Amino acid sequence: MMTSKSTIFSLVLCSTFFMLSMGAQATSLAEIKQRGKLIVGVKKDVLLWGFQDNASGKIVGMEPDLAQSIANDLGVKLELVGVLTAERIDAVKHGQVDILIATLTDTLERQKELNLITPHYYSSGVNLLTRKTENFKEWTDLKNRRVCSRRGAFYNRQVTVTYGADVVALYSNDRSKQALRDGRCAALVYDDMSIAAMLRAPEWANDFVMPMTTIFTSPWSIAIAPTERGGELEKYLSKTIINWHRSGYLQQVEKSWAIPPSRFLNDKHKIWNKKVDNKWLCGDSISPSTPKECL
């Protein structure tokens, strides 16, 4: 059967687009240095962690500071890409960013989709932000109650199945917070560290409270494309995080943003500085023999 020139051209064009899209996902450490720019995905709607400053219009916060530290160390410029929770994974998979530092919890499902770097750089759990008048005491009080969340949060299904809550997952943090203010939901299920930061502001502290015991505590990971698994970029980022823990840098940045001190960071700082027979307990890099408490 004869193949028309237009058909051949279409096949070549599709193949080219496929190759280009695959190449965009495989940005190596060497390519970042050659380009002279590091592209990092960070949250743009999480107070203190990654949010847009009203005065400058820039995205600022603890995680943008971590991204800047990496760029400085590599000697390249930094480009920040603001992402929402629902956009984070696709931003990495589709090559829109080189790395992702965006309050991303390490889960088995995400490990299949992305290359999650260890050791982890932070940790948080799940809690509830609600009006004081709701008088929630236990997580079981959420049964059949409408609770707002954000799309893509790993705990949405767990809260629904375990406690019988009617979880309404909205597209962004801003929309879920506004729904809570408007009374369209009885509470907001969210990261406990983020709630603690919000409650320092009078607009929340006067009428709202975080009443529950934190659940589903999980570590956060920096993520890169799965095509970079075992590559130089993964190794570099892993050693960078090790240095952050060992030097106390993460605690310094946390303090600079007045984020409530993290027990996770305190524990990791201690363990990465622990020696046995004059050798680092955790070693100098991650390997199959690295103790779990170091990760």
UniProtKB/TrEMBL annotation:
<dbReference type="InterPro" id="IPR001638">
    <property type="entry name" value="Solute-binding_3/MltF_N"/>
</dbReference>
<dbReference type="Pfam" id="PF00497">
    <property type="entry name" value="SBP_bac_3"/>
</dbReference>
<feature type="domain" description="Solute-binding protein family 3/N-terminal">
    <location>
        <begin position="37"/>
        <end position="261"/>
    </location>
</feature>
<keyword id="KW-0732">Signal</keyword>
<keyword id="KW-0813">Transport</keyword>
<protein>
    <submittedName>
        <fullName>Transporter substrate-binding domain-containing protein</fullName>
    </submittedName>
</protein>
<dbReference type="InterPro" id="IPR051455">
    <property type="entry name" value="Bact_solute-bind_prot3"/>
</dbReference>
<comment type="similarity">
    <text>Belongs to the bacterial solute-binding protein 3 family.</text>
</comment>
<feature type="signal peptide">
    <location>
        <begin position="1"/>
        <end position="26"/>
    </location>
</feature>
